[in-house]
Design brief:
CATH topology of the largest domain: Metallo-beta-lactamase, Chain A
Number of domains: 3
CATH architecture of the largest domain: 4-Layer Sandwich
CATH class of the largest domain: Alpha Beta
Strand content: 35-45%
Oligomer: single chain
Distance between the termini: 80 Å
Radius of gyration: 25 Å
Low-confidence stretches: none
Helix content: 10-25%
Shape: globular
Number of strands: 30
Bound molecules: zinc ion
Mean pLDDT: 95
Number of helices: 5
Largest sheet: 7 strands, mixed
Length: 453
């Protein structure tokens, strides 16, 4: 009789600063893996490691905020039909939690510091030739201002908040009396509710609004602001095209495989997923080809452009398949997500948490929106909005229009009556161009008229 393969663990044993979910794997087909977290050998009554219910190694702070060092001995054994049970194997983990008032930093590339609080929430500090910019203010309750001042020295500094969630605004109030603090006013009401609920010292009337088109000039860093409504209505990202760096907060989510963060769209601040697809088309028309690293609010290392492709594939899956795209989420437990890529093996895997129902603005087959119109060789006016139908283009030379359409299989887009594909360029001379989008079930028709002058 053959023996069941010995289970392996992902992540491998080691010391971590934050909670981990451990995936137990076994090469024998059909194997069931039982485990304990106290070092005793598993029995038939021990919990089974299910794909959506993994052993959780909690990170603990005591009542005073002190970080607790927790040691976990994960003991596992696999059994499979017509096989002898595997060897019993143990994996030792330490979760060495930081105190809630502690910050740590690393210069991840010249002039760019990643600052982490006790929960590993990422803030970024950019030291330019002339100015510094702190991006986000974390979840921790320590002296972030003192910590940042030690890094910045005499440089003048501003503070940019990517969005109004608690893990990005907790220490924001420390800066308001001496620094300009920027955050989209779309997130003010939400930030206010967190301030009330969590007792943050924060004067929201001092916050300066942020909008797409602004540039933060630090001397040698030029950070362009783009809006990515979705995770929150005021989510903003920063791009330095010379370096190819994006700082994104949570606008594109995170894909840490062992926590896992995903893109949180199951929360009250989130847009319908088809609206988020529209936002992705619009922002990608501006940023694609101009960056190669995305620093987010939760990943330990920057994400490459391929991650956005996977993320957009997940969004499109949700639009196309609706609830059929869902499986139980790893975090939060009891939630639902859609996922593309293998979490354990694929560094570009992406997942999006959504509510079980109602995550589209309309049934999939009724969706048909010109999400974004990219114009080369001319200037579009007014600025493109999916709800506006009439435009002019002041041509500077040969004009190329590229329509991006939020739609599902079976919907169609035509240009001057000829079928066209979303994302495909269309060259025009002067005259009128009519772009029509018809939903899969024929109920929705949107017409956009662009006059090229
Ligand atoms: Zn967030």
């Amino acid at each position: 009789m053959r023996t069941t393969a010995t289970p392996t663990a992902f992540p491998a044993p080691g010391t971590f600063a934050v909670a981990q979910q451990v995936t137990l794997l076994c090469d024998t087909p059909g194997a069931v893996i039982r485990y304990t977290l106290d070092g005793t050998p598993p029995t038939a009554q021990s919990p089974v490691c299910e794909p959506h219910d993994l052993p959780m190694l909690a990170a603990v702070n005591d009542a005073t905020g002190k970080g607790v060092r927790s040691c976990y001995t994960l003991t596992a054994q696999a059994t499979a039909p017509e096989h002898a049970p595997s060897a019993v194997v143990t994996f030792d983990y330490v979760i060495d939690r930081r105190d809630t008032d502690v910050y740590v930093s690393t210069e991840v590339e010249p002039g760019l510091w990643m600052i982490k609080d006790y929960d590993d929430t990422k803030m970024y500090l950019i030291k330019g030739r002339e100015r510094a910019l702190l991006i986000d203010a974390g979840l921790g309750n320590g002296q972030l201002r003192t910590f940042v001042n030690d890094l910045v020295g005499d440089l003048p500094m501003s503070v940019f908040i990517t969005h109004g969630h608690p893990d990005h605004i907790a220490a924001m109030g420390q800066f308001e009396d001496a620094y300009d603090v920027y955050m989209s006013h779309h997130d003010l009401a939400m930030a206010h509710s967190f301030k009330e609920r969590l007792g943050y010292q924060l004067d929201l009337s001092a916050i300066i609004d942020v909008h797409e088109g602004m540039v933060f000039d630090l001397g040698d860093w030029h950070l362009e602001v783009y809006q990515v409504p979705g995770h929150s209505q005021g989510s903003m990202i920063l791009l330095d095209a010379t370096r190819g760096v994006i700082i994104a907060g949570d606008a594109f989510g995170s894909n840490t495989p062992t926590i896992p963060h995903a893109l949180w769209m199951q929360i009250p601040s989130a847009s319908p997923i088809d609206h988020y697809l529209t936002a992705l088309y619009a922002v990608r028309a501006h940023i694609d080809g101009r960056y190669d690293r995305i620093y987010g609010g939760h990943n330990d290392t920057p994400l490459p452009p391929a991650y956005l492709d996977t993320l957009q594939a997940v969004v499109q899956r949700l639009v196309d398949e609706e609830q059929a795209a869902l499986s139980p989420s790893l975090r939060p437990r009891g939630g639902w997500w859609a996922q593309v890529g293998d979490r354990v093996r694929d560094p570009h895997w992406a997942a999006i948490n959504v509510p079980r129902e109602g995550f589209l603005s309309a049934p999939s087959r009724q969706l048909a929106t010109l999400a974004y119109l990219s114009v080369h060789g001319g200037t579009l006016s007014p600025r493109f909005l999916p709800t506006t139908g009439e435009y002019t283009v002041q041509a500077r030379g040969a004009v190329v229009l590229t329509p991006y359409v939020t739609m599902t299989a079976g919907a169609c887009v035509t240009i001057n009556g000829v079928p066209h594909r979303s994302g495909e360029p269309y060259a025009v001379a002067t005259g009128a161009v009519v772009i029509q989008v018809v939903a899969a079930d024929g109920t929705t028709t949107q017409v956009y008229r662009i006059v090229v002058e």
